[in-house]
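pls ignore typos typing on phone
zinc ion + seq
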Amino acid sequence: MTEYILLAIIMVFIYFVLIRNKPAPKTDWEGLPTLPEYKEIEKTTTSEGELCCQYCGHTETIERSLNSEKENPNKNKFYHACTNCKVILWRSEQS
Ligand SMILES: [Zn+2]
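k done
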């Protein structure tokens, strides 16, 4: 009987080790650059030094809350998209 309990403990132990060692899958949101990272990318500022869309050069962006309940349980994650070409440019998080 004790062997079975021991075996069960070992199996649970192995299970947790495997799960914990697995890197958490990166979400789409996490794949976006942060604002300082975005500024490092070429063509993200106009000649006047204004922040702009790296694809179309438009300077207006819109902030939207990340909709996923799972990825954004505290409602503090946002993404910023170009209002002209609608491409999402960077992410931000409020603490
Ligand atoms: Zn754009």
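The pocket of zinc ion is lined by residues 53, 55-56, 58, 82, 84-85, 87 (CB under 6 Å). The chain has one domain: 26-93. more later
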